[in-house]
Amino acid sequence: MGAIMAEMLIVNEIFLSLQGEGTRAGRPCVLVRLTGCDVGCRWCDTRHARDEGEEMTIDAIEAAVAQFGCPLVEVTGGEPLMQAGATALLTVLCDAGYEVLLETSGAYDIAPVDPRVVRIVDVKCPSSGAAEAMRWSNLEGLRASDEVKFVLAGRDDYDYARAVLDRHRLAALCTVLMGPVAGHLEAAELAAWICEDRLPVRLNLQLHKILWPDSERGV
Fold first, then answer.
1. Are 114 and 105 in contact (CB under 8 A)?
2. I need a labelling partner for 171 at 20 to 30 A (CA). Which of 114, 179, 195, 202 fits?
3. Is the pLDDT score of 86 beyond 80?
4. What are the two backbone dihedrals, phi and then psi, of residue 83, each rounded to the nearest 5 degrees?
5. Is 2-211 assigned to CATH 3.20.20.70?
6. Torsional sign, CA 20, 24, 27, 31
7. Are 28 and 72 in contact (CB under 8 A)?
8. Domain spans, the chain
């Protein structure tokens, strides 16, 4: 365990906020944002996490998380699974008794992730420019505790997401989230499409952007 705890990761920021998305939206959550991403999504809202950060041991990261006294922790990015040590960090956080979430683009293999972790997989739609980065085998191993997220900029993205939903029978596997790209698709319009098609999904609004629209870091 000592060798694992000494493993180094590059960390962009660690902070306490409200969980902004998904089934745990609104709950206090410690966000561990790791540095690095090679997916290149057009809608990225954490560009500062691509190359800004400092090295920390897993031990130091866990200590920083513990200072907040919050039972819910999310490891995010960037793309956290770019760093080989991310899976070890997730296991250490689970062992420490936290409820642990992982936010990932879906471009990296999620199979090695500790089964206690809630894996939130972002399936990139065509408008993102990163749809080809998706590792489709990730959808085959989803568990009921996992979540799949689609971020939509318009009707073409919605139709794409609906086709993926049907082809992979996602609603039978886990919770499916659909959310609009701010400034490109109105939430009410997306809600109307979901209702019209009776889709078995949840409308996913970014609570942190509603509460703190002018902040990019620490939210």
1. no
2. 114
3. yes
4. -95, 125
5. yes
6. negative
7. yes
8. 2-211
